[in-house]
Specification:
The chain is mainly β and about 120 residues long. It contains no helices and 11 strands. The radius of gyration is 13 Å and the shape is globular.
């Protein structure tokens, strides 16, 4: 069974940076599209960034473009979300997710496997 373990969340002041890490139980991430999503209470999960293995394309939410970067290290079987210039509105639970069907887009229904989530709080 695919398992995803996330780490790197925490409390940071506005303007600060965090790097979220997601480690997968698979040998390689090459068979999956990968994504980062976030959710606040009472709201649906929002696609933050997705990386489409099939063509190498990336998708970013408009709210994070220029500030967040998604990447992966296949050797370490990890996925990263580097977050910079964080804002209070970035506060949310962040989830790593995998899409075994390698669909295009960056929406929750496309993704089948999910991590437990890690809290990111941006506050002064």
């Amino acid at each position: 069974q695919v398992q995803l373990v996330e780490s790197g969340g925490g409390l940071v002041q506005p303007g600060g940076s965090l790097r979220l890490t997601c480690t997968a139980s698979e040998f390689s991430l090459d068979h999956y599209h990968i994504g980062w999503f976030r959710q606040t209470p009472g709201h649906e999960r929002e696609g933050v960034s997705c990386l489409h293995t099939r063509d190498g394309s990336t998708v970013y939410a408009d709210s994070v473009k220029g500030r967040f970067t998604i990447s992966r290290n296949n050797t370490k079987n990890t996925v990263y979300l580097q977050m910079a210039k964080l804002k209070p509105e970035d506060t949310a639970v962040y989830y790593c997710a995998l899409d075994p069907h390698q669909s295009f887009g960056c929406t929750s229904p496309e993704y089948e496997y999910w991590g437990q989530g890690t809290q990111v709080t941006v506050s002064s």
